[in-house]
Specification:
With 469 residues, this protein is of the alpha/beta class. It is built from 20 helices and 5 strands. It binds a DNA duplex (15 and 15 nucleotides) through α14 and α20.
Length: 469
DNA sequence: TGAAATGTTGGGGCG
DNA sequence: ACGCCCCAACATTTC
C-alpha cells in the first residue's frame, strides 16, 4: 500500500492547507510530519519566544489531527534523511508541502525536492502563506517592485486570491504509525519558566487563531482606521504570530473581510506581502541595507546602551513601555515598534541589525520578511523606507498616541501615579509632582539616557557625513 | 507611518 | 477709523 507524507512547516493548520488537502484528495493514507531543523535555518533560527510559541502550536496541531483520526509525527533534523527514512518505512511515494520564502529555506527545500524526485518520489508544493506569489508580481518592465503603493495596486489588479479550502473532516492513517518523539523532546520551551506573560497574552494554535480573527472582525475592524495607532486601545488584530506560524492563512483573513470597512486592514496584509516580495528578490537584506551607502553610516555600536534599550531603561516612558511589553508578552504594538526603532537607530545611532536581532529573539511573531522590512524602513536604508531624517520625537509620539498615559502606566508601573500632563516627560515635572507620585528620578525611574534634541542634531549630522563621503 | 524651522494669514486688542 | 503689534492657526520648507 502507498501513502502520502505531508510535511508541515509554517502552515500549522488544517483549514485552507492546500498541501494537506491535496494529499487527502489523493486517496492514500496520509502521514503528517514535522521536522525540527534549527541547523538548517541558517543564521535565522527561531528565537526563544518563537520556540515557545512553536511548542504550543505543535501540540495544538497534534490535537487537531487526532480529532480527525490522525496524529503528528515529530522528528528532528536532518530533514532530508528523516523524510527518506519515513518514505522507506511507510512506503510513501509522494510528499506534499507548502512553500516558505526565507532565502536559506528556499535553497534547502529546492535541494530536498530535487533529491526526493531523483529517487522516484513525487513532490507537490503549494503557496498558502501569501495572497500573491512573489514571482508573479512585476513592474511593467518585468522587475520587482521597490515602492509599496504601485506594488499593492498591481496585486489588487491581478487575480483575486483563491477562496480558502475547508479543513478535511477525517484523515486516513497508515496501518502502522512510524515512530515519533513527543513535542517536549524538541526542548523548545525555556528551561527557566519565563513564559508566564506569554501564556496570559496568547492562545497559540489554529483554534486560538480563528478566535482572534473572529474577535477582531466583531469588535475591532470598524474602529481599526481610527484606533490602529493607539497602543492604549486594543485596536489591532494581534494576528501576526498566528499568521507567521500559519495557524491561519491570509486567504482566510481576506475571505472573512469582504466588507467595505476592511480596506485599511487589508492594506496591512499588503505590507506583509510586500515584505515577502522584497525578501525573495533581495535575499541579502536581513543583514545588509538595501541602499548600500548605509554601510558607510557612522554607527556607534555601543553594547551598554543597547542593553539599556533592551531592558526598557532609557528614561523615555513610551520607549520603555514598548520594550517591556515586548519582554513580557512577546509582542509590541506597531506604532511603538516604530518609536523604539527610531530611538535605537537615530537617537542612539546603534545599527538597525542589533534591533532586528533583539526583536528576532523576543517577538512571538518574529518573521524574517516582516522584521527585515520593518527595521530597514525605520533606519531609512530599505525600499520605500522612511527617510533617515524622519525622526520620531518620543515625547510627542507618546502624547499623541497615548494621550492619557494608560499604555505607559500599564508597562512602566513606577510611573503609574504621574499625572498625564507629565507622564511622557517626567524629567520636566515639578519636584512636588514627582514627590506626590512617589518617585525619585534616577532611582525609581531613570533620567533620559540622551537628550532627544541633541541626539536629533547628532543624527542629522551623521546622516550628512554619510552622504558627503 | 515626523518634526522643527520658517513663512503666511487674519483676527483682535489697543493707542 | 486707522495702523500697528501680537499671536494663534495653518501652510511650506528643510533636514
Amino acid at each position: 500500500m502507498k501513502c502520502s507524507l505531508v510535511w508541515f512547516r509554517f502552515d500549522l493548520r488544517l483549514a485552507d492547507n492546500p498541501a494537506l488537502t491535496a494529499a487527502v484528495e489523493r486517496g492514500e493514507p496520509v502521514i503528517p510530519v514535522f521536522v525540527w531543523s534549527p541547523a538548517e535555518e541558517g543564521k535565522w533560527v527561531a528565537g526563544a519566544a518563537s520556540r515557545w510559541w512553536l511548542h504550543q502550536s505543535l501540540q495544538s496541531l497534534d490535537a487537531g489531527l487526532r480529532r480527525c483520526g490522525s496524529r503528528l509525527i515529530v522528528r528532528r533534523e536532518p530533514t532530508l534523511k528523516t523524510l527518506r527514512e519515513l518514505i522507506v518505512r511507510t512506503r510513501a511515494d509522494a510528499v506534499f508541502w507548502n512553500r516558505r520564502y526565507e532565502p536559506a529555506i528556499v535553497s534547502r527545500d529546492q535541494t530536498i525536492q530535487k533529491k526526493l524526485q531523483d529517487s522516484g518520489v513525487t513532490v507537490h508544493t503549494f503557496n498558502t502563506a501569501l495572497l500573491f506569489e512573489p514571482d508573479t508580481i512585476r513592474t511593467t518592465a518585468g522587475k520587482p517592485f521597490q515602492v509599496f503603493t504601485p506594488f499593492w495596486r498591481t496585486c489588487l489588479k491581478s487575480r483575486e486570491p483563491a477562496a480558502p479550502l475547508p479543513a478535511p473532516r477525517r484523515l486516513q492513517g497508515p496501518k502502522r504509525w512510524p515512530v515519533s518523539v513527543p513535542v517536549t523532546a524538541l526542548e523548545l520551551e525555556p528551561e527557566i519558566d519565563w513564559a508566564g506573560g506569554l501564556r496570559t497574552a496568547w492562545r497559540p494554535g489554529e483554534p486560538g487563531a480563528r478566535a482572534a480573527l473572529r474577535r477582531f472582525i466583531n469588535d475591532g475592524l470598524c474602529g481599526y482606521a481610527a484606533d490602529r495607532d493607539r497602543p492604549d486601545v486594543a485596536g489591532t488584530s494581534r494576528l501576526s504570530p498566528h499568521l507567521h506560524f500559519g495557524e491561519i492563512g491570509p486567504r482566510q483573513v481576506w475571505d472573512a473581510m469582504r466588507s467595505g470597512v476592511a480596506g485599511p486592514y487589508l492594506r496591512q496584509l499588503g505590507w506583509r506581502e510586500f515584505a515577502h516580495h522584497l525578501l525573495v528578490h533581495f535575499p541579502q537584506t536581513p543583514d545588509q541595507p538595501l541602499r548600500p551607502e548605509y554601510d558607510r553610516f557612522p554607527w556607534r555600536d555601543d553594547g551598554k546602551l543597547l542593553g539599556v534599550w533592551q531592558r526598557g531603561r532609557t528614561g523615555y516612558p513610551i520607549v520603555d513601555a514598548g520594550m517591556r511589553e515586548l519582554w513580557t508578552t512577546g509582542w509590541m504594538h506597531n506604532r511603538v515598534r516604530m518609536i523604539v526603532g527610531s530611538f535605537l537607530v537615530k537617537d542612539l545611532l546603534i545599527p538597525w541589525q542589533r534591533g532586528a536581532k533583539w526583536f528576532w529573539d523576543t517577538l512571538v511573531d518574529a518573521d524574517l520578511a516582516n522584521n527585515t522590512l520593518g527595521w530597514q524602513w525605520t533606519a531609512g536604508c530599505g525600499a520605500d523606507a522612511a527617510p533617515f531624517f524622519r525622526l520620531f520625537n518620543p515625547v510627542g509620539q507618546g502624547e499623541r498616541f497615548d494621550p492619557e498615559g494608560a499604555y505607559v502606566r500599564r508597562w512602566v508601573p513606577e510611573l503609574a501615579e504621574v499625572p498625564a500632563r507629565w507622564i511622557h516627560r517626567p524629567w520636566q515635572a515639578p519636584v512636588t509632582v514627582l514627590r506626590d507620585a512617589g518617585i525619585v528620578l534616577g532611582k525609581d525611574y531613570p533620567k533620559p539616557i540622551v537628550d532627544h534634541a541633541a541626539a536629533r542634531e547628532r543624527a542629522l549630522r551623521a546622516f550628512g557625513r554619510m552622504r558627503k563621503r
